[in-house]
Structure formats: structure tokens, C-alpha cells
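Is this the right way to post C-alpha cells for a design question? Let me know if I should format differently. Anyway, here goes:
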């Protein structure tokens, strides 16, 4: 056989090569895809409890026998706006304590808040005293006040005595959430000095003859009592004055200078002080410089006595002119309390 042409040779070589590749491919192993599987694991973290703290204190005040709190008598802590209690009446206070717990307001479930109202000069943990310290251990969560990380508690203290000391007072709020006690919160409030008195209704000298002095029952001395009750929260002095220059009678008049007074019982009417009564009535509001300052203290703590007031008497007498007067004589005089 003659040699084939070159082109045929090339085709034979290619056919042999393809035959060899087919043989190799037919004997190779083709890998299969792997079967997928899933596993679940937990991720845990413990968020620590952060103590709550007080972020706002707002208090309102009122007389105990007034039904509602007035907006004018409400103030935020440290506002330096004083509250002036009424003389002779206890007063109530109610406070909203806003608590922030960054774990969420729910953390206060199972917690508590209580408050102590104390004069700033008295330690909060002292024994309760009507002059300087009151406590409330039953503050209540205000339903509907919960929001995010805040909640408000209401705390009320009733019948604070009118003689509780004036000056700077502190409302201390102690608190805890369900796990940890918080940092106590403090708010300061001012209570005004109150000068207030209650006075007996009349000074009755009885039936006296022209030319006599003193009173029907004890001639020659000041012995008719006028009772002054201190119904404020500070020591008081008093001043007295007449409504006119004369005491009007059915017949004639009696000069008001004929009405004498003293803080000592049964001082004589005639002689000048210090032997005689120290003061005489005038149309000017005053307390005679010859008299001892009245100096009536306010009540303290439980203030013993049926009236629960601090009480002191002034003693009075009158000089009846020898002629020109008769019948019933009446007159109005004024007694006021001033801070002593």
C-alpha cells in the first residue's frame, strides 16, 4: 500500500487521540453532591439590674379641711417659692415622685417608695416629731403613669401641725426596685413664718361705781384676763390699739387712757410702772415700752392641753371717772400678733 496523503494521516492521528480520551473518561469516578443538615444553638446574655433613681419631685399643699389642692399651692422641689399655712389649722401635702429605672418601668413592680418630710436641720432618721419630722411608708404607684423607663409614685402626708417649724424642709424619697435599692432623692421646700393668734372675745369689768378703778371683782388692780392663743409657727409678741379716743357710755365717755394692762396679774392701777400697770390703751397700735415683751412661744411637738395651743394672758383694769358718766359703756380694741 502506498503511503496515504498527508491530510489523511492527520485525520487518523486525531481519531486515535479521541479514542484514547474516551477510554480514560469512561473509567473515571464522578463525585456526588453532599447532603445538607441544620443545628440550633442558644445565644444568652444577662442584663444586670440598675438601681432606680428619683428624677423629679413635685408637691402640693392645702388646709386639711379644704377638699382640693389648688394649682397655686403646687410647686417643684427647690423652686424657692414658700408655702404659707393657715394659722390654727393643720395642713396636708401630696407629692408626685417620678422614678427612672433604665431597665424599664416594669422593674419597679415589686419595688417600693417611701418619703420622710423633715426640717432640714433635723436628720431624716430621727424620731417622728410634730415640730420637725413626719413620715409616710405607703406611697402608691400612679396607675397610667408608666412610660418606657419612668413611673410616678404618689405620697401623701396629712394633718401636719400648724406649729411645725418654719424654714427650709426636705422631702426625702427612699426607693427600691424588685432587686436593688436606689439612691434616695431629695427635694427642698420653704414654709413661711406664720404669726396668728386667737383672742378671747371680751374684757368685762363688771358693774362699777363712779370714781372706782380695777374691776367689780378686784378693785384697784388689773385682774380681768384676756387670753391669747398662739396659732402660728413662731414666737409672737402682741400690740394693742383702740378704735377711737373714748369709750362711749349711755351718759358721757371714758377716755381710753383709763384702760390699763399688764402681763403681770394684779398690778395696781394708780402708780406708774414698775409698781403700777405697765401700759395704757391708746389709738396707736403699740405695746408699751414699759411692759415686758409678750414673748408667747408657738406649740412644740404634741402641744399638751385641751386647746392644743400655746396660751398666755394679759390683765386689764379700768378707771371710772368720778362724774359725768353712767349706764352701759362699750368699746372695741384691737390685739394683733407680730413676730417676736
Amino acid at each position: 500500500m502506498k503511503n496515504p496523503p498527508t491530510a489523511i494521516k492527520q485525520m487518523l492521528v486525531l481519531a486515535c487521540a479521541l479514542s484514547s480520551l474516551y477510554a480514560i473518561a469512561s473509567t473515571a469516578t464522578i463525585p456526588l453532591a453532599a447532603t445538607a443538615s441544620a443545628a440550633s444553638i442558644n445565644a444568652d446574655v444577662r442584663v444586670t439590674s440598675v438601681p432606680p433613681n428619683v428624677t423629679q419631685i413635685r408637691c402640693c399643699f392645702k388646709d386639711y379641711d379644704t377638699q382640693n389642692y389648688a394649682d397655686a399651692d403646687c410647686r417643684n422641689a427647690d423652686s424657692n417659692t414658700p408655702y404659707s399655712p393657715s394659722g390654727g389649722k393643720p395642713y396636708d401635702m401630696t407629692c408626685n415622685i417620678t422614678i427612672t429605672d433604665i431597665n424599664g418601668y416594669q422593674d419597679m413592680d415589686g419595688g417600693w417608695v417611701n418619703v420622710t418630710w423633715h426640717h432640714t436641720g433635723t436628720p431624716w432618721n430621727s424620731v417622728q416629731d410634730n415640730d420637725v419630722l413626719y413620715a409616710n411608708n405607703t406611697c402608691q404607684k400612679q396607675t397610667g403613669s408608666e412610660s418606657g423607663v419612668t413611673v410616678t409614685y404618689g405620697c401623701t402626708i396629712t394633718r401636719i401641725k400648724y406649729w411645725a417649724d418654719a424654714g427650709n424642709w426636705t422631702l426625702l424619697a427612699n426607693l427600691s426596685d424588685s432587686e436593688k435599692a436606689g439612691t434616695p432623692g431629695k427635694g427642698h421646700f420653704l414654709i413661711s413664718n406664720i404669726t396668728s393668734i386667737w383672742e378671747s372675745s371680751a374684757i368685762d369689768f363688771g358693774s362699777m361705781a363712779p370714781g372706782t378703778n380695777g374691776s367689780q371683782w378686784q378693785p384697784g388692780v388689773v385682774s380681768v384676763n384676756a387670753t391669747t392663743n398662739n396659732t402660728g409657727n413662731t414666737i409672737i409678741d402682741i400690740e394693742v390699739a383702740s378704735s377711737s379716743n373714748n369709750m362711749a357710755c349711755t351718759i358721757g365717755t371714758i377716755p381710753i387712757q383709763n384702760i390699763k394692762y399688764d402681763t403681770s396679774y394684779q398690778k395696781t392701777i394708780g402708780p406708774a410702772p414698775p409698781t403700777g400697770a405697765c401700759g395704757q390703751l391708746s389709738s396707736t397700735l403699740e405695746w408699751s415700752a414699759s411692759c415686758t415683751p409678750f414673748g408667747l412661744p408657738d406649740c412644740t411637738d404634741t402641744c399638751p392641753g385641751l386647746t392644743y395651743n400655746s396660751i398666755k394672758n394679759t390683765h386689764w383694769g379700768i378707771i371710772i371717772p368720778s362724774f359725768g358718766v353712767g349706764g352701759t359703756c362699750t368699746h372695741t380694741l384691737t390685739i394683733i400678733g407680730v413676730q417676736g
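Format looks fine. Someone answered above. Worth noting: Helices lie at 6-26. The chain has two domains: 53-191, 197-339.
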